[in-house]
Amino acid sequence: KNLFRLSLRESWEVADGLLRLNEQLATVDAHAAQEAASSFVRAAAEGLQAKMRSERVFHQKGTDGFASAEVASWCRLLADAPLLEAAGIAPVAEAVWDHLATESVQVIARGELDASSLDLLEAFVAEGRRRGWRATDIASP
Predict the structure, then answer these.
(1) What is residue 57's predicted lDDT score, i.e. its pLDDT?
(2) Number of H helices and number of E strands within the chain?
(3) How far apart are alpha carbons 25 and 22 in whole angstroms?
(4) What SS3 class is residue 43?
(5) Which residue of 4, 80, 95, 130 is most buried, as measured by CB atoms within 10 A?
């Protein structure tokens, strides 16, 4: 499963679409949809850090980084526990959240305080509650 041909935005759109399709098909025999969503989202989450590094080198050169909406979209998606659970997806690795935290800090440091900033904060609060993160703990994203 090579997701590098998809942009960060495109891979989020596919992941989000598959998860939402799976959610809608939950009342019928949705095994195939669940399997497709689960497989894609797991692969996308596991390769997210590499995808972002690659895209930064090849597509974001000369820019200040990713658009706030792209980072916020992935944070929102991966913090949506009911949506992930409906597809049989366990919470993603903490390393993914550490990387998303780094990307989020860069977005906020650029001063892009818009609706995406609120989405970032909401996603980290939701995931933090689930994982028991503490704002005063330097080990917490």
Answers:
(1) 80
(2) 7, 0
(3) 5
(4) helix
(5) 80
The sign of the torsion formed by the CA atoms of 12, 98, 4, 55 equals positive
Give the pLDDT of residue 74: 93
CA-based nearest residue to 93, from 43, 57, 137, 52: 43
Contact 52, 6 (CB under 8 A): no
* DSSP codes joined into one string, 75-86: HHHHH-HHHHHH
What is the spatial distance between Cα 6 and Cα 14, in angstroms, rounded to a whole number?
A: 9
Cβ atoms < 10 Å from Cβ of 58? 9
Q: Give pLDDT tens digits for 23-66.
A: 777 666 667 778 888 888 999 999 999 888 888 887 666 667 78
Q: Is the pLDDT of residue 22 over 90?
A: no
Q: What is the dihedral of CA 106, 111, 117, 118, to 10 degrees?
A: 140
pLDDT, average across residues 92-111: 88
